[in-house]
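Tokens as discussed.
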């Protein structure tokens, strides 16, 4: 499992770095790179693990990985980041990004709560998967439009200065190697996660929500800790919200389009907790220090995540 996780993280890093270098070489702006390659690149481990789970018929692990990753992102990563340095919540984030993240959680809950709403078995159908992908396209288009409007003008930088004197063949090799690491590492990680779950007497869904989710969220954790240390809290907050939206709309949308996703041992309560956690980010802007996620709230976030994991292990 550790070898598979290492390959996942290394693959995501090389894929993101190689893709960014090639994009810069052709004069693509930092804004476009950050919004697309970097944002989706940090979600690549979740995408690979969830897709492989779907192809192998373990659809509850695919859903559990996304739910667990999003909860880990909100409660653990933002909690740790706020402990290092309080995160200021800007007006644009509160009025635009946080509502999109909450919308993603609500849409997923509606898709997965068929068992309560219609008396049917909880699942995400192909049509719902396509709907999730449509939401992702709308989110990307809206983000491009608003960010372009707010983007400060940049000086033209020669494309060759952005390549860091690295051969394009090396950059392409990084992309191919990164993809190979993601695919092989994801397959290895999933295979032994299932074996581990069975040996420990735990359900595959629980191991997906906890161990798999935490492992595949390492890129977001590392990114946010570094951002906090450099006093770039907005980058950390944006990374978490953007990753959560991509996890639901892009990853689950793609997986459900390939094959309907049955919740299996994922409970409706897990979906409700995800909605509540997404709402907590907005609430934190109005508690303690206004418009800021401070250290006290960081401790609360971490304790909430620990409590959730303990409740899972006691099922």
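Sequence:
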């Amino acid at each position: 499992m550790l070898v598979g996780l290492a390959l996942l993280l290394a693959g995501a890093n090389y894929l993101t770095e190689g893709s960014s270098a090639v994009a810069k070489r052709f004069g693509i702006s930092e804004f476009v790179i950050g919004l697309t390659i970097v944002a989706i690149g940090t979600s690549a481990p979740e995408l690979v693990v969830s897709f492989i789970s779907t192809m192998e018929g373990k659809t509850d692990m695919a859903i559990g990985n996304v739910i667990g990753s999003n909860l880990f992102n909100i409660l653990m990563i933002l909690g740790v980041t706020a402990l290092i340095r309080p995160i200021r919540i800007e007006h644009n984030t509160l009025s635009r990004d946080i509502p999109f993240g909450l919308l993603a959680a609500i849409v997923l809950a509606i898709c997965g709560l068929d068992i309560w709403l219609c008396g049917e078995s909880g699942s995400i159908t192909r049509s719902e998967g396509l709907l999730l992908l449509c939401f992702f396209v709308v989110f990307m288009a809206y983000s491009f439009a608003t960010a372009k409007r707010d983007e400060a003008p940049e000086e033209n930088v020669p494309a060759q200065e952005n390549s860091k004197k690295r051969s394009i063949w090396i950059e392409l090799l990084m992309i191919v190697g990164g993809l190979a690491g993601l695919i092989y590492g994801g397959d290895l990680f999933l295979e032994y996660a299932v074996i581990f779950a069975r040996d420990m007497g735990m359900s595959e869904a629980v191991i997906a929500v906890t161990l798999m989710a935490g492992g595949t969220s390492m890129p977001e954790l590392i990114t946010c800790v570094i951002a906090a240390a450099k006093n770039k809290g907005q980058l950390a907050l944006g990374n978490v919200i953007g990753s959560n939206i991509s996890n639901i709309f892009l990853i689950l949308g793609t997986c459900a389009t390939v094959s309907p996703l049955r919740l299996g041992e994922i409970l409706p309560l897990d979906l409700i907790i995800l909605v509540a956690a997404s709402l907590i980010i907005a609430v934190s802007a109005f508690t303690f220090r206004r418009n800021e996620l401070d250290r006290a709230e960081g401790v609360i976030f971490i304790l909430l995540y620990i409590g959730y994991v303990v409740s899972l292990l006691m099922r």
